[in-house]
User: Fold Ribosome-recycling factor from Phenylobacterium montanum.
Amino acid sequence: MATAEKPVLPRYRERMDKAVAALKEEFGSIRAGRASANLLDQVMVEAYGSTVPINQVAGVSVPDARSLTVSVWDRGVVVSVEKAIRNAGLGLNPVVEGQNLRVPIPPLTEERRKDLAKLAGKYTEQQKIAVRNIRRDANDHIKAAEKDGVIPQDEAKRMTDEVQKMTDDAVKRIDEALKTKEHEIMQV
Assistant:
């Protein structure tokens, strides 16, 4: 194995920040009773012989707080887009109007709110795992650098402590995002 280089902690902090940002993006696809263009971001459509994100075959707009409008660019994939939205597990039933789909956003039931809160928790756990994996990578890098004599033992200890602080901070921000999203979901 080649000699280790000195670990660069801001690189790991940036990766943890990206995990938090990814969680917030995933939360955008969980509806909390009002329409959002991000609601359909996770919907994948069978089109042109492959599976593509909905934003590659249509534009999504929000005409009002209770509905979305999906403007499909190619008439040949309208049925595929409708089917993808229906089967996305979002509880939405689009209405086809030519090359456009009107997607009414029904009010959430208490049971559906609990399911969405569970889904938010699942997304949160995935990002916490990602942050812990980043911590492991950083610590492995620090250990290798110490073993190869690139950094002294006391600096390795200081860097390991710093990585733990970055991890704790990222996990705290993830938990705060979940708390905010759960409050948003459960609000009637």
